[in-house]
């Protein structure tokens, strides 16, 4: 998998994209992440990529020309499955979407900034708009990092135990069951006996029941989505 991220703040992505699972996946050759500075595609001598909006609205708007130049250059080199724009009014990013995107070959993520982007970018250059939550960030860089982490960790071989990802919260629209480790008793607080029983089938039944119970109590909306 290859992910190309277009941003005006490439330095903001240095740490999250080069640590832990994302770094290991790249070191193994399972994923490639390239960060492109949008200012490199500006024709302005000051490398500006924004301007005042028509109509007198407050704030600055990302211009269409540098974005088009960046996306067109990338698309001239390979075929992309999606050109994604990080936007608070996009489709909600969920585990099911991460699952689908993890099977893609090439993705572009355009990070929004300033007041927003020239709407013609959304009309003509973007294939998918994604939001990581109902709130507004200063820019889309952190959202892009979140999506990269959620997507790449699902690629076979990215994490040591592939079965671990299958039992994460939100798979099958359920929260994960409670998990415990040693010691089995601490300050009188005990691990449920079933987990120490060695009866794998009963343990799996308990885990499923607990997942349903936790989801019903904490996130009933997930059950409504079924």
Automatic annotation (TrEMBL):
Q: NCBIfam families from the entry?
A: PRK00026.1 (NF000648), trmD (TIGR00088)
Query: What does the similarity note say?
Result: Belongs to the RNA methyltransferase TrmD family.
Q: Name one GO molecular function term.
A: tRNA (guanine(37)-N1)-methyltransferase activity
Q: Which residues cross the membrane?
A: none
Q: What Gene3D superfamilies does this protein map onto?
A: 3.40.1280.10, tRNA(m1g37)methyltransferase, domain 2 (1.10.1270.20)
Q: What is this protein called?
A: tRNA (guanine-N(1)-)-methyltransferase
What does the entry list as the binding residues for S-adenosyl-L-methionine? 112, 132-137
Q: Which HAMAP family match?
A: TrmD (MF_00605)
Q: Mind listing the GO biological process terms from this record? A: tRNA N1-guanine methylation
Q: Which organism is it from?
A: Coprobacter secundus subsp. similis
Function text: Specifically methylates guanosine-37 in various tRNAs.
Instruction: Give me the Gene Ontology terms describing cellular component.
Output: cytosol
**What are its E.C. numbers?**
2.1.1.228
- Alphabetical keyword list: Cytoplasm, Methyltransferase, S-adenosyl-L-methionine, Transferase, tRNA processing
Q: Where in the cell is it found?
A: Cytoplasm
Where is this protein primarily located?
A: cytoplasm
